């Protein structure tokens, strides 16, 4: 309970320090977006596409009229209800998480009683190792997301997008939790904004940076972090993430690494000793 409450206090202090700047950058980005989109039309290729499909024209009209706000939230009242629902869901999630963590030992002991008494210590050991590896995966995932957003924040300040660097870094962090497609979506969003604010060269540099970072992240950062946190070989981590994403989409990619870690534990601790005794 002390650890959980300390974490809540730290997150609240961090939000209190960051949210004003984040809200300012988001408001500036939203208010300036119509002019940025209008600037895109000066590009011959974009202007030709817009003349044919009227994409930028329609987006500009929607943003200028405020119809996106009414359509998304149903007006001010709908926005208030949506915010209240989000806050209520966060509160309920926090309470249930604290309750689950507080009573987790008792829940686990109840489950352990379903195993024979002679094998109960072994079951407790294996279950503890599975929980430890799942926890290691979650902590490793947050490290990966922090590195991705931090790198994006530094890069955006270097290329001259400092006025929106924090807001875009938050976007990168949010999509970084989505395996496979998330980094690509955030790359396209940031590149489009770089093209609107700066020029085509800045957009190309942005795409090149994110593509290079994705390769470094997929084949160097994640394998090393998860190899230590979940005790799974690096090549197996890459193979598991790709296979899970191909077979089951985003949910499969999310649970692939902890599933492989648990399966590898069962293989090493149960199957191999049983085969050795046979």
Automatic annotation (TrEMBL):
The keyword Phosphoprotein does not apply. GO terms for cellular component: plasma membrane. The keyword Secreted does not apply. The chain crosses the membrane at residues 72-104, 141-160, 166-193, 200-216, 236-267. Its main location: membrane. Belongs to the autoinducer-2 exporter (AI-2E) (TC 2.A.86) family. This is AI-2E family transporter. It comes from Propioniciclava coleopterorum.
């Amino acid at each position: 309970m002390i650890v959980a409450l300390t974490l809540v206090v730290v997150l609240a202090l961090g939000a209190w320090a960051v949210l004003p700047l984040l809200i300012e950058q988001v408001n500036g980005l939203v208010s300036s977006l119509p002019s940025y989109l209008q600037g895109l039309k000066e590009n011959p290729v974009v202007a030709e596409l817009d003349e044919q499909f009227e994409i930028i024209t329609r987006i500009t009209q929607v943003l200028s009229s405020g119809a996106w706000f009414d359509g998304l939230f149903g007006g001010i009242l709908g926005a208030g209800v949506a915010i209240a629902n989000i806050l209520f869901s966060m509160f309920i999630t926090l309470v249930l998480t604290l309750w689950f963590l507080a009573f987790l030992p008792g829940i686990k002991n109840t489950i352990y009683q379903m195993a024979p008494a002679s094998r109960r210590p072994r079951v407790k050991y294996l279950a503890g190792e599975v929980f430890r590896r799942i926890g290691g995966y979650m902590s490793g995932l947050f490290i990966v997301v922090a590195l991705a957003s931090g790198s994006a924040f530094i890069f955006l300040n270097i290329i001259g997008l400092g006025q929106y660097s924090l807001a875009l870094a938050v976007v990168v962090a949010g999509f970084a939790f989505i395996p496979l497609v998330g980094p690509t979506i955030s790359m396209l969003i940031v590149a489009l904004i770089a093209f609107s604010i700066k020029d085509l060269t800045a957009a190309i540099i942005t795409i090149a940076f994110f593509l290079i970072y994705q390769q470094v992240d997929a084949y160097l950062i994640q394998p090393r972090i998860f190899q230590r946190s979940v005790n799974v070989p690096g090549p197996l981590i890459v193979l598991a993430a790709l296979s899970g994403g191909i077979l089951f989409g985003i949910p499969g990619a999310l649970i692939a690494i902890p599933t492989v870690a648990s399966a590898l534990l069962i293989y090493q601790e149960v199957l191999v000793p049983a085969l050795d005794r046979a």
